[in-house]
Design a protein that fits this description.
This protein is an alpha/beta fold. It has 3 domains: 159 residues, Chitobiase, domain 2 (2-Layer Sandwich), CATH 3.30.379.10; 369 residues, Alpha-Beta Barrel (TIM Barrel); 71 residues. The protein has 19 helices and 27 strands. The strands form 7 sheets. It has an 8-stranded parallel β-barrel, surrounded by 5 helices. α5 runs parallel beside α7. The longest helix has 18 residues. The radius of gyration is 27 Å and the shape is globular. The relative contact order is 0.09.
Length: 617
C-alpha cells in the first residue's frame, strides 16, 4: 500500500491522539521527551526506501548515511530518493522539515510510525531531522549490533516519539594538550557526540605540555612548542619522579583543523577552540620566551600541574595573542572562543616591572585586577570580531569581563555568581563532570588523576542550582563533561573513560528533568554496551562493579559493600568460594573476623551481574 503525502499527514494527526502509554521502555539515549510504543512492529526489508523532502541536500546526505547504516547488517540496500520521484509512500522511511511547530525549535523532532508500515521523521530544520535519525538507529534490536549474519528484514518497535532538548548547550571536552590524538580519533570522538545528541565539542588545543594548532604567523609554536623532551611516568604524586626519556609531540595543521571543523559541522556539532591564557602557557613561552615576564629560557612542561611562568602583560604579548586569535577565528566559524583563564599564579606578575607598571597605568588595585584587565581586553578584541568569549570560573576574579560566558568547574559557586550577574553559564563542576576521575575501585581501574565519579553520580547531576530564581536560571545554558588527558595516552584510554558516562551526561542535558530515571537508564545500558562492542570501542563496565571498602570501626576491620544497580543483591563469601545465590546476603558493614579474603558477586532477579570480585583483607 502507498499513501500520498497529504493523506500521510492526515493519518499522522489521527493516530497520534490515540497513543498514551510509554510502555514498554525503549533503548534510546538520551531519553525522549515523550514516546509511545504500539503493539506492532515496523518491518524494514527489500521494499524499504528512504525518501526525503526535496530540494534539500542536507536531508539527502542524511538519507544516504542511514541507508549505509541499514545496509551494513542487511541483505538489502535501501534506495534513497527525493519525494518528487517517489510520489507515494509505503514501506519507507520518510524525512522532512515540514513540522512547522515552533515548540520544537531548531533541534526538536517527531518520529511517527504510520499504519505499522513506515516511519516519518519530521522537524523544523535538518538539524532536528538529524537528531531524529540518531533515535531511529537506537530502535534497532540488539542483534543488529551483535555478530549475526546479514538479515533479510529488521523489525523495529512501532514507536512514536516527540522530542526536543532541555538545554541549548550540550558539551563534551577533549584535551589534546597533555596527550595528542590523531585526526581519525577526533572524528570518532565527534561520531560519539553525534550519537548522543551533543552539539558542542570544546577542543583544548594549548597547554603547558604542548601547543597543538598550527599558527602561520608564529611557526615556532609548533616547531618548538608542540614537543616536550620527555613525559613523567606514573602518577604525578609519586616520589621520586621518573621520566620516560622519550620526546613526545604532535600538532594539527590548519588544513586538518578545517577538515575536523567541517566534519563536526556535518554532524551539527560546533567546535569551540581553547587557547589558554594567561596561565598554562609554558609551551608558547618555550617557543617565544619574550612573552614571559623573565624572558626565559623556558621548556615545554614534562610533568603535570600548575606552573608560575605565565604570559606577561606587555603590549607585545597582547599583539601576539591577537594575531593568534585572528588565525583561530578564521579556522573556527562558531560564535564561541574559549580563552582559559584558569590556574594562573600571580608570582611572576608581582615581581615583573612591566606588569607592575601596567597596574599603575591602568589604576589596578592588585594582580587579580590585572588578570581581569587581561581577560577583559581579550574579550573586547573577540567582541569586536563578533565572537563570544568563554572562560573558566577564575575569570570572575577581579571583576567579570562584559558579555563573558563562565564555565564553572570549581563546583557551582562560580556559575551561581555569574548567573546572578546576568552572565550565561555552562556548568561543569569537577564533582560530577570530570571524566578523568575514576569510575570504579582504583584497584580495578586504569591509572587516573584521582576522584571517584560513578555513572550514577553523573546521571544525578542537576545543572540548574536551587539558589537561582527563574530569571537567573535562564542563564544556565547547559553543561559539559571534561576529559583531561594527563593519564590518557591512547584513544582507547579516552573511550574507556567516557563510555558509558557520556551517555548519562547526554540524558542530563537533553531529557526532561522530571522524566529522568536511573533504573530505566541502567536497563538500557546493555543495548549501548552491545553497540560499543560492534564499534570496537573500549569502555568501562564499572557500573556493574561492587564498591569494596575495608575500614576501621571501633578498632575492628569492617567491610562495606556498595552498588549502583537498583534492586540488586550483593552476595559474598569469606571462605574463598565463589559467591552464589545461596551465599551470605549483604545488608550492612560487617566484621570479616579472621578471613583473609572476601569475594563478592552482584545478582539481579536471581541472575549474575558483572563478574566475581576479590579483595584481600
Amino acid at each position: 500500500m502507498r499513501s500520498t503525502l497529504f493523506g500521510l499527514l492526515i493519518v499522522m494527526v489521527l493516530t497520534s491522539a490515540c497513543e498514551r502509554k510509554e510502555i514498554p521502555d525503549i533503548n534510546v539515549v538520551p531519553r525522549p521527551e515523550t514516546y509511545y510504543v504500539g503493539g506492532n512492529v515496523v518491518t524494514l526489508d527489500a521494499d524499504t526506501r528512504i525518501v526525503y523532502e526535496d530540494p534539500n541536500p542536507a536531508l539527502r546526505f542524511m538519507a544516504e548515511d542511514l541507508s549505509v547504516f541499514i545496509a551494513a547488517k542487511s541483505t538489502f540496500v535501501p534506495k534513497v530518493l527525493p519525494y518528487s520521484e517517489a510520489q507515494s509512500l509505503g514501506n519507507d522511511i520518510f524525512m522532512a522539515t515540514n513540522l512547522a511547530d515552533s515548540a520544537y525549535g531548531n533541534e526538536g523532532y517527531r518520529i511517527r510510525r504510520m499504519d505499522s508500515q513506515m516511519f516519518v521523521i519530521q522537524a523544523n530544520s535538518p538539524k532536528g531531522v538529524f537528531y531524529g535519525i540518531q533515535s531511529l538507529k537506537q530502535l534497532f534490536p540488539l542483534p543488529y549490533f551483535q555478530n549475526v549474519d546479514k538479515q533479510d528484514k529488521w523489525e523495529l518497535p512501532a514507536t512514536t516519539i516527540n522530542d526536543k532538548p532541555r538545554f541549548t548547550y550540550r558539551g563534551m571536552h577533549l584535551d589534546v594538550g597533555r596527550h595528542f590524538f590523531p585526526v581519525s580519533f577526533v572524528k570518532q570522538y565527534i561520531d560519539l557526540l553525534a550519537m548522543y545528541k551533543f552539539n558542542y565539542l570544546h577542543w583544548h588545543l594549548t597547554e603547558d605540555q604542548g601547543w597543538r594548532i598550527e599558527i602561520k604567523a608564529f611557526p615556532k609554536l609548533t616547531e618548538v612548542g608542540s614537543w616536550r623532551k620527555e613525559t613523567i611516568v606514573g602518577h604525578q604524586s609519586v616520589r621520586p619522579k621518573v621520566f620516560d626519556g622519550n620526546p613526545y609531540g604532535g600538532f594539527y595543521t590548519q588544513d586538518e583543523v578545517r577538515e575536523i571543523v567541517d566534519y563536526a559541522a556535518s554532524k551539527y556539532i560546533t567546535i569551540i577552540p581553547e587557547i589558554e591564557m594567561p596561565g598554562h602557557s609554558l609551551a608558547a613561552l618555550a617557543a617565544y620566551p619574550e612573552l614571559g615576564c623573565t624572558k626565559g629560557p623556558y621548556e615545554v612542561a614534562t610533568q603535570w600541574g600548575v606552573f608560575d611562568d605565565i604570559y606577561c602583560t606587555r603590549e607585545s604579548t597582547f599583539n601576539f595573542l591577537e594575531q593568534v586569535l585572528t588565525e583561530v577565528m578564521d579556522l573556527f566559524p562558531g560564535q564561541y572562543i574559549h580563552i582559559g583563564g584558569d590556574e594562573a599564579p600571580k608570582a611572576r606578575w608581582k615581581q615583573c616591572k612591566d606588569c607592575q607598571k601596567r597596574m599603575r597605568d591602568e589604576g589596578l588595585a592588585d594582580e587579580s585586577a590585572l588578570q581581569s584587565y587581561f581577560i577583559t581586553r581579550i574579550g573586547k578584541f573577540l567582541t569586536a570580531h563578533n565572537r563570544k568569549m568563554i572562560g573558566w570560573d577564575e575569570i570572575l576574579e577581579g571583576g567579570l569581563a562584559p558579555d563573558a560566558t563562565v564555565m564553572s568547574w570549581r563546583g557551582t559557586d562560580g556559575g551561581i555568581a555569574a548567573a546572578q550577574m546576568n552572565h550565561d553559564v555552562i556548568m561543569t563542576p569537577g564533582s560530577h563532570c570530570y571524566f578523568d576521575h575514576y569510575q570504579g575501585d582504583p584497584e580495578t581501574q586504569p591509572l587516573a588523576i584521582g576522584g571517584l565519579t560513578r555513572v550514577s553520580k553523573v546521571y544525578a547531576f542537576e545543572p540548574v542550582p536551587e539558589e537561582l530564581n527563574a530569571a537567573q536560571a535562564k542563564h544556565i545554558i547547559g553543561a559539559q563533561a571534561n576529559v583531561w588527558t594527563e593519564y590518557l595516552v591512547k584513544p582507547e584510554d579516552v573511550t574507556y573513560m567516557i563510555l558509558p558516562r557520556m551517555a548519562a551526561m547526554a540524558e542530563v542535558l537533553w531529557s526532561p528533568k522530571e522524566k529522568r530515571d536511573w533504573e530505566k537508564f541502567y536497563n538500557r545500558l546493555p543495548w549501548h554496551f552491545a553497540r560499543y562492542d560492534a564499534l570496537g570501542l573500549q569502555y568501562s563496565k564499572a557500573v556493574n562493579e561492587i564498591g569494596v571498602k575495608i575500614k576501621d570501626g571501633n578498632g575492628q576491620r569492617m567491610v562495606e559493600l556498595t552498588t549502583e544497580v537498583h534492586g540488586a543483591e550483593i552476595r559474598y563469601s569469606l571462605d574463598n568460594t565463589r559467591p552464589g545465590n545461596e551465599s551470605a546476603l549483604y545488608s550492612n558493614p560487617f566484621n570479616p573476623g579472621d578471613a583473609t579474603v572476601v569475594k563478592v558477586q552482584l545478582f539481579r532477579d536471581g541472575k549474575q551481574v558483572g563478574t566475581v570480585q576479590e579483595r584481600n583483607l
